[in-house]
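Researcher: I've got a protein sequence and the SMILES for magnesium ion. Could you write out the 3D structure of the bound complex as structure tokens? I'd like something to compare against our soaking experiments later this week.
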Amino acid sequence: MSMPKIQSLSLKAANIPLNRVVVGKVGTFENWAVIITEITCSDGTVGKGYIGPYLANYMPAIASTIKELFKNIVDREISPYQFYNEVMNSTSLMGRSGIAIYALAALDISLWDASSKMANEPLCVHLGGSVGPVKAYNSCGLWLDNNTNDSFEEAQKLINKGNFDILKIRLGRSNIDQDLNAIEAVKKALGKDNLLLCDFNQGYSLPDATHFLNILDNKGLYWFEEPIDYYNYDGYKELRNRMKTPIILGENFHGPDDAFRAMDQKICDFIMPDLMRICGVSGWMQTASIAAAYRIKMSSHLFPEVSAQLMRVTPTAHLCEWTDWAEPMLKDPYKLKDGNLIIPDIPGTGIDFKEDILEKYKINI
Ligand SMILES: [Mg+2]
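Model: Sure. Here is the predicted complex with magnesium ion in place.
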């Protein structure tokens, strides 16, 4: 059976304004820089996707890597896994992390969208799963700029947005009492039976993390996310041994290799890969199999649309991180119901873009 062939690639980039400014240990962000990848096939199918590599000034380098990788698939039949494996097995000159991974992810996401559109199925069905609700949490606020009163009010707003019962707060303020007050305020809004996650965005050194996490360890937080540098595996192992609260990391895994090493070395209790950095749908699926083998629960980081589809076929699926960052540019953002993301029952990933918004916030690449 012959499949349609891959014909052309269109790349666009934009700096989409955020509804809520991000104030974290990694910096302050008012926009989300995205690259849009659209692959047109011989039957007219257009596979669409986006990645969000944060740093607008680096977009031209990523875009040129995407274009270079695309040369390997033009005029070929669509087969996302095969292309992913070919690139991953031949990246020794570029490395299996960083820009090479981002570029491959951008193509991979669009190829899977095209492939599932050709099969006339939602992505999760195309991968062998079914359409259904995906348990999510609202991650759209509670940054480090909140004082106690702001935290209570913002938590209420975040809960009401989609009837959420799980929220995430960012911690690591210069004064631990401010963190403790913010936790108390959010817990008051959330109710004592609901889960509160927390994220340190790698803000602590290992000795400080040991000190401050000890204070926070009996506060009923559901997980400690990235307290120290993401690459300090020995440090994570030590923290995991010392703390009762589960440790999670994974948004900075570059490809399934990193995820495997983290799970093999038992440095965390949960993982939360990022669709772009884990290398798209193909990298996610490989990681999901590894997590299943280690019996480790797997959550997602950003990119709620494609991540929700993938959670439906992830054996240890845990919590989907929901943010509204992409909403201004999406024609039909996924709907929320009772703290779940609702996957649209249409072919592909359901991602399509508002051209006027992409044009308005365009970045030249
Ligand atoms: Mg995080």
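Model: Residues 126-342 form a domain with the TIM Barrel fold (CATH 3.20.20.120). The chain has a mean pLDDT of 96.
Researcher: Great, I'll pass this along to the crystallography team.
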